[in-house]
Amino acid sequence: MNAGAALVWLRGSPLFGLLLTLLAYRLAMSCNRRAHGHPLTNTVLLGSVLVIAVLLASGIRPDEYMKGAQFIQFLLGPATVGLAIPLYHNLARLKRAATPLTLTLLAGGLTGIVSALGLGMAFGLPREILLSLMPRSVTTPIAMGIAENIGGIPALAVTFVIVSGIFGAVIVKPLFSRLRLDDDLVMGVATGISAHGIGTARVFLLSETAGAFAGLAMGLNGLVTAVLVPVVLGLIHV
Amino acid sequence: MIETLIWLLGYQLAGELICRSLALPLPGAVLGMLLLFLTLCAKKGIPASLNTHVPQLLGHFSLLFIPACAGVIVYWPLLTAHCWALLATLAGATLITLLVPAVLLKVLLARRHGRRPA
After folding, report:
1. Domain extents for chain B?
2. HSE, side-chain direction, 13 A CA sphere, residue A133
3. Which site among B54, B89, B99, B111 would you substitute to test the A interface, given the most A Cβ atoms closer than 10 Å to its Cβ?
4. DSSP class of residue A41?
5. How do the domains of chain A map onto residue ranges?
6. Which of residues 49-88 of B touch A (CB under 8 A)?
């Protein structure tokens, strides 16, 4: 028997992280289908919980997992570029709604910053956490950059971004159906502003159009937020 | 498939290079998306390979977030220290930021439709 040597090889091999991610996703997808798309069976939420459970149970470290999982994470870039295709399919709608969209993005970006900062201050959170909370509604690479610029902790900002994204992805459908806001354009833009890529992935499954507008709103909100965060910090003493 | 990969990676690379050299506060992939979108507008059409393969890739967009989400485990001690205040802040802020733009956009779109002759 050489099970020990095999385990050592497995820990160092990218095969483990790759296969674990694919299996967790596949299993999460079946659960989601069986539960008729129930929000709590969100594939990102369930998939990552499964991965975390396996890592904790096996004692394999997150950096060992990432050796394989990084290949999947890498595809986020090209997939984001690909959002241009559904967006192009909606060119006519985009042109018609240009002014309302611009106003909504500016107001939404400001709401994202002020709501996180205001609530965090109300709950008495410490300064470095508050600064890391401010970019919580934008996509991870931008959030990291913003947090670093203003003296927050980039890794914490990423964590807040992800928790927000999962929460947004879970509640968006029931919330918007109940409030009769489930128009493709309205739901897509709001999700992109509040719940960035994870929300975008969720609404993309509901409608390709909503997903395309979410992707656009996510990108532009990143830009708006990057510009507005220093302005807000100049006005509100943290 | 190969054409699709070349398109997507090429635009991502262009986006990254432009963002980095101009120090733009934007991820390269998002600028790549905007550049590809402008290219499609200029071409007035979508290349066949992009039109077939990109929807297949985006159908599994959720999969691509699992590694980053599982990585949250690293900050577990920091998170549990302020667990409830953080959860309430994140949930509240996400909710407010979903509703404010949604209601605003709905009102703006309705107003514009109202102004147009029926």
Report:
1. 1-59, 67-118
2. 30
3. B89
4. G
5. 3-74, 81-235
6. 50-51, 54-55, 57-75, 78-79, 82, 85-88
Condensed to tens digits (0 to 9), the pLDDT of residues A99-112 reads 999 999 999 999 99
Q: What is the pLDDT of residue B117?
A: 46
Q: Quick one: tokens of A46?
A: 């369930």
The residue with tokens 């990057």 is A226
Which residues between 7 and 26 in chain B have a beta carbon less than 8 angstroms from any beta carbon of chain A?
A: 7-9, 11-12, 15, 25-26
Q: Write the DSSP symbol of residue A123.
A: T
Contact call for residues A176 and B102 (beta carbons, < 8 A): yes
What value of ipTM does the predicted structure carry? 0.87
**Backbone dihedral angles phi then psi of residue A36, each to the nearest 5 degrees:** 50, 45
Res A34: pLDDT = 93
Tokens of B30: 């998002």
Say whether pTM exceeds 0.90: no
Under a CB-based contact definition with an 8 Å cutoff, are residues A124 and B85 in contact? yes
